[in-house]
Amino acid sequence: MKVILVIILFSLFELFNLDFEEDHKYGLEFFLKNPIAVMIMGSVVAPLLEESQFRLPLSKKRNALILPFFISLIMVIVKSLDNAVWIETLVYTSYLIFLLTCFTFHKKYVLKPKIAIFTTTIFFSLVHVFSYELHEPSFATHLLTLLAVSPQFIGGLMLAYIRIKFGFWYGVLFHGIWNFLIVSFILIPLVLFEESLL
C-alpha cells in the first residue's frame, strides 16, 4: 500500500513538474555554503523555537501560552517586514489569534485538549508549506505542497504526544534528533559530492 502511495505521489509531482529538492526555498548552494549553520539551525534553534511555539501551548497552565504568543507575534512582524507572501503572514496571524483566544478563554481551552493538539499541529504543518517556492502557483501545486508537508503533520502529532506524555524538553530533544538526521541525510551527500552537483 505504501509503495502505491509513493508511486502516486511521485507521479503527481512529475505531472505538475514539481521538484521539491530544487524548489525548496533554500537551494543546494545555501546548504553547501553553510553546512554547520544549517545543522545548528535545523537541529537546535528550529526545534527549540517550534516546540516553544507549537507544543508549549499544550500545557494546562495559562502562562504556557505567553512565550508562544510572543514568538508568533515576532514571526508576524518579521514576515510583514520581510514582504513575505501574504498568506504566510496570514497563517502566523491566525495562529496568533488562536493563542490569544486560548489565553482569553483558558478554562474552555483546557477542557478540549484534542482541539488544541490538532490545531497546533495543523499550524505547525502550514508554516512548513512556505519552505517551498512554487514557480507556477495553482490549486494543484498548492495541494501537492500540502501533501509534501504531511510528514510534518504526522510528526507534529507524534511531538504533541511526546510533549504530553513525557514533557516539553523530551519533545525538543526528539525534534532536534529528528531534524539532525534529516539534515545529515541532505548534507552528507552534498558535501561529499559537491563538485558533481554544481
Helix/strand layout:
Blueprint lengths: L1 H14 L12 H6 L1 H20 L11 H16 L4 H19 L1 H6 L1 H17 L9 H10 L1 H17 L1 H25 L1 H4 L1
Shape: globular
Question: Helical segment tally?
Answer: 11
Radius of gyration: 18 Å
Distance between the termini: 36 Å
Proportion in helices: over 70%
What is the beta-strand fraction? under 5%
Order of helices and strands: HHHHHHHHHHH
Q: Tell me about the biggest sheet? A: none
- Taking pLDDT < 50 over at least 5 consecutive residues as the criterion, the unreliable ranges are 1-23
Describe this structure in words.
By secondary structure, the chain is an all-alpha fold. It is built from eleven helices and no strands. Helix 3 crosses helix 4, helix 5 runs antiparallel to helix 7 and helix 7 packs across helix 9. The chain starts with a helix and ends with a helix.
Question: Descriptors for this entry?
Answer:
11 helices, 198 residues, mainly alpha, 78% helix
Could you give a short description of this structure?
The protein has 198 residues and is mostly helical.
